[in-house]
């Protein structure tokens, strides 16, 4: 069984938009909020309200509350931050796979949105490569299938507690840094047979995730 949910990933805005150009408010006569999310320039909702097509925001008012989406990629926007590192936090679909309980190996793959040509990169400062599951390993690959990162997990001993974000280094959970200047990635998760009788309750996953969201994901990955 496959369960799909949205995880939050931080995109870094490149220097094509300077801090002098970026504002804390929308352009005059333009919609400043979508729901409770502020939409500052160079982003904007509606014609003549954004810097160029990469910064166009679609406000989906059919949702309650309304939610903003980065139009070019159809990614939900959680936050736009010009105060610190010029970052954009967006939601990216992530799949949780039911642990395979037979013998041998099972391989699951996923692709990220492709940011090539855009003013955005996957932030190496604000994201980690997170792998969850029991007795599995995952590769982070680029578009040419070159290995960018690797992480592996093992099953816990019976009666042991779930790991915390400060101890996400192998037991059910593994995290590692990602390279800079990343515009696309592919995940390749491989499970293997194991003897932990409750392993079918532990979801398998491999994806980039915002560092601040790791602890929440570990505690309740399906929320």
TrEMBL record:
It is found in: Membrane. The keyword Transmembrane helix does not apply. GO terms for cellular component: membrane. Its main location: membrane. It is a single-pass membrane protein. InterPro entries: WAK_GUB (IPR025287). Residues 30-90 form the Wall-associated receptor kinase galacturonan-binding domain. Residues 1-22 form the signal peptide. Keywords: Signal. One of its GO terms (molecular function) is polysaccharide binding. PANTHER family: OSJNBA0016N04.9 PROTEIN. This is Wall-associated receptor kinase galacturonan-binding domain-containing protein. It comes from Nepenthes gracilis (Slender pitcher plant).
């Amino acid at each position: 069984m496959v369960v799909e949910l949205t995880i939050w990933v931080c995109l870094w805005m490149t220097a094509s938009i300077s801090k002098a150009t970026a504002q804390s408010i929308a352009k005059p006569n333009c919609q400043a909020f979508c729901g409770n999310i502020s939409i500052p320039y160079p982003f904007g909702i509606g014609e003549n309200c954004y810097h160029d097509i990469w910064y166009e925001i679609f406000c989906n008012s059919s949702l309650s509350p309304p939610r903003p989406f980065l139009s070019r990629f159809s990614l939900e926007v959680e936050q736009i931050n010009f105060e610190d590192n010029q970052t954009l936090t967006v939601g990216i679909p992530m799949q949780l796979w039911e642990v395979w309980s037979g013998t041998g190996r099972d391989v699951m793959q996923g692709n990220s949105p492709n940011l090539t040509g855009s003013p955005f990169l996957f932030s190496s400062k604000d994201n980690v490569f997170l792998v969850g599951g029991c007795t599995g390993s995952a590769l982070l690959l680029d578009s040419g299938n070159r290995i960018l990162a690797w992480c592996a997990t093992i099953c816990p001993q019976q009666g042991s507690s779930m790991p915390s974000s400060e101890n996400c280094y192998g037991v059910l959970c593994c995290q590692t840094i990602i390279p800079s200047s990343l515009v696309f990635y592919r995940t390749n998760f491989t499970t293997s047979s194991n003897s932990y009788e409750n392993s079918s309750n532990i979801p398998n996953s491999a994806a980039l995730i915002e560092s601040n969201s790791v602890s929440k994901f570990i505690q309740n990955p399906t929320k």
